[in-house]
Design a protein that fits this description.
The structure is a single chain. The protein is α+β, with helices and mostly antiparallel strands. Helices cover 37% and strands 27% of the residues. The protein contains 13 helices and 15 strands. The protein has helices at 2-13, 21-35, 45-62, 66-75, 82-88, 98-109, 118-140, 150-156, 163-169, 179-191, 223-230, 234-245, 357-360, and strands spanning 43-44, 95-96, 148-149, 176-177, 196-199, 202-205, 254-262, 273-287, 290-300, 312-317, 334-338, 341-354, 364-374, 377-385, 388-397. The strands form 4 sheets. A 9-stranded antiparallel beta sheet has the order 10-9-8-7-15-14-13-12-11. A two-stranded antiparallel ribbon has the order 1-2. Strands 3-4 form a two-stranded antiparallel sheet. The radius of gyration is 23 Å and the shape is globular.
Amino acid sequence: MWIRYCSALLLLSCAFGWARADDASDRAERMIRAGDQDKNGKFEWKEAFERWNNARQSMQVADGDEALEEKVRAAFPELIEALDFLAADTNDDLVLTRKELLESFKIEAAGKELKATRKDLEVFYAEVVNESWPAICKIVDTNADGALSRAELDDNYPTKVNDDCFKAADKNKSASLDKTEYAAFKVEEHERGLFVEFDERGGSVGGAGGTGAQAGEDGPEKEKDKKAEAKKGDAEKKTEVKERKSSRIKVGTTWLMRYRIEYKSDDGSGDDKWRYQLCTITAIATKSDETTVDWKHATANEKGEAIDQPSGGGSRVLYTGKNAKYLPPSKDLVTVTVTAGTFDCEVREIKDYPMPGKAGEGKKCVAKYYTAYVDGFPLIVKMECEGVVMNELLEFKE
């Protein structure tokens, strides 16, 4: 949600009634320069989407770490959301000009929203689905035929599949959606007020325009699902409680991380400097077969002792119960050894990560994140940039 809020804020900041025209013009120029990644003098759609998507993925990884979130914001100045780019591109040539940006600022200044057309939505979701298709198929396409059947979606989609959306997208009436049809399905959802994010990290439902069942909340059409869940029986529930009690993830579990804030120059000058953070699980709540874990974090010293009061925290839904399907296949995991021990991890790459500290000032790299799933809890074990460790798990205490 940060991406949507931030990009809207960037646009609005340019458009207040009291802002001078030259201020808006300067801001438009800065946005174009920031977006023009290949420096050809044009702010093009592919550049806008890649930059927005990198920022979105980076913020997902940084979720709950205030310092890391701030680094992500600093790494993507003058960011515009991909769909806002298309809405502002009024001549549909997939190049956003200074004039078009200024017109979009005027619309925002008048208290109105940029309206994405059907064509804008088609371009946007074609790009989104193309980028996330392999991850979606890994979760949904259980028979590996390259298409998502209605039955597969019913079993794995984050919310009840909308019949009208599916029928409108299934052009060949095959009862399944290929990549192009799935992009059309997302457009149909959007136009009906359904906003479903779905990729290898799982799914969420909500957003403006959705009410009740539209926004993924419980509605009459979900009563059947509720009754089916209720039939699991007491024996299964008792087993789940037993597993929960024996879990390594429980109230009081702690882990200590260190984050590099400076590192030595290539010539060996300077020092490696780290920030330490102690995290403690404060609550675990289970509703039906979905478990949510809350934690707090505090600045710590090298010994893992908190040196101030908790100043932040986070919350995650465990990849257990109905969410266990989001766990990556074991064949895709790599074994990683850090100070805290050895873990089987999923590896994800994020482009344009800002290198910290004096020696890395201004540099960007491809960051590799290593995530272990401890009893379904996604725990970042290590992050590297060009072979240099940027953060690391030092200790994990049950």
